[in-house]
Design goal:
The chain is built from 9 helices and 14 strands. By secondary structure, it is of the alpha/beta class. A hairpin with a 2-residue loop joins strand 3 (about 50) and strand 4 (about 55-60).
Length: about 325
């Protein structure tokens, strides 16, 4: 299978974060043939050691690293880091999967969910962008419908877990929950308002349009991944006090009739998606790589419209697993 059959030197930029740890977990589970691991982070984290791939590895300062000799590099340390270091890594000969916003909307960089548009990864491809975690859950559910009958308009509300905001936000959720249980006033430092026992309809800064950056990402990336700029997307992004797993409530107006039974059949046949007549929740999907769809019903107020709910693990399929799947494609086609 191309380079994937050979021992690989692999680096992760953002190795000490929650997604970095999830990437290692997925790489080990899928037996990606790493012979040498180069964990990279900011200078503040460079004193740490990480146990992975049968060894213990010293975390290095990403900005001081010479990328020569590294075969694959997965970036998940934020757009400014990727903007500064991805060109350096590519020039040194790395193949790069970037799980930040830095290159997602670059017209020359494929934005890939392998089950949907993996054909965009070619033997010459050196850089692939991994989409936003919520966008991945959404497009996995929309893709089989879009292929079958087309989609005109999507109204989507996301319910995004605290892990999507990083380790500090998770720590804050735990601390706020403990403080509330003790009858104390919870401290708010990382997120804009208290998240424990609360919902926060604000993820990212609000732009001139009135939508947040997170909402704009969901809309723009959905169009790019599905290859259809005519799909109108109306998003609302909400942070909720769950630890892992993002959910979306979707109303989709289709371009042709589609029965509910046919919609279920499409999801059940699509790789990486499962339809459940049960009620799928983020808690149940945590630690798994599939996107689960449920609560399907017709929208009686609009012609050719369906309403459904979908959930996925934002740390795995929404980030780590999707990135590793891309690396596997790059390796198999190099």
């Amino acid at each position: 299978m191309g380079d994937k059959a050979k021992p690989i030197t692999l680096a992760i930029v953002g190795a000490t974060g929650v997604v970095g740890h999830a990437m290692v977990e997925v790489l080990e589970e899928r037996r990606f043939p790493v012979c040498e691991y180069v964990p990279l982070a900011t200078e503040l984290s460079s004193h740490k050691k990480i146990s992975a791939f049968g060894g213990e590895w010293q975390v290095r300062d990403a900005y001081k690293t010479d990328f020569r000799g590294i075969d694959y590099c997965l970036f998940t340390a934020g757009a400014p880091v990727s903007q500064a270091l991805v060109p350096k890594a590519i020039e040194a000969g790395c193949r790069v999967v970037d799980n930040t916003t830095a290159y997602r909307m670059d017209k020359d960089v494929p934005l890939v969910v392998p089950e949907i548009n993996g054909s965009l990864v070619e033997s010459r491809t050196r850089l692939v962008a991994c989409p936003n975690c919520t966008a991945i859950v959404l497009v996995m559910a929309l893709a089989p419908i879009s292929r079958a009958v087309g989609i005109d308009r999507v109204v989507v509300t996301s319910f995004q877990s605290v892990s999507g905001a990083g380790r500090e936000a998770l720590d804050e959720l735990n601390a706020q929950t403990a403080a509330d249980t003790r009858g104390e006033r919870p401290s708010v430092k990382t997120l804009p308002k208290q998240i424990a026992f609360n919902c926060l309809p604000l993820i990212g800064d609000i732009g001139p349009s009135g939508y947040t950056k997170e909402e704009e990402k969901i809309a723009e990336e959905t169009q790019k991944i599905l290859g259809d700029a005519a799909i109108r997307v109306v998003p609302t992004a909400v942070r909720v006090p769950s630890r892992v797993g993002h959910a979306v409530s979707v109303s989709a107006e289709l371009r042709a009739p589609l029965s509910l039974d046919d919609a279920k059949a499409l999801w059940r046949k699509f790789d990486g998606v499962r339809y459940s007549d049960d009620i799928p929740t983020p808690l149940e999907i945590a630690g798994r790589d599939e996107v689960v769809v449920g609560r399907l019903r017709a929208d009686a107020t609009r012609p050719n419209a369906i309403v459904f709910w979908a959930v996925g693990d934002n740390l795995r399929k929404g980030a780590a697993t999707n990135s590793v799947q891309i690396a596997e494609l790059m390796a198999s086609r190099s």
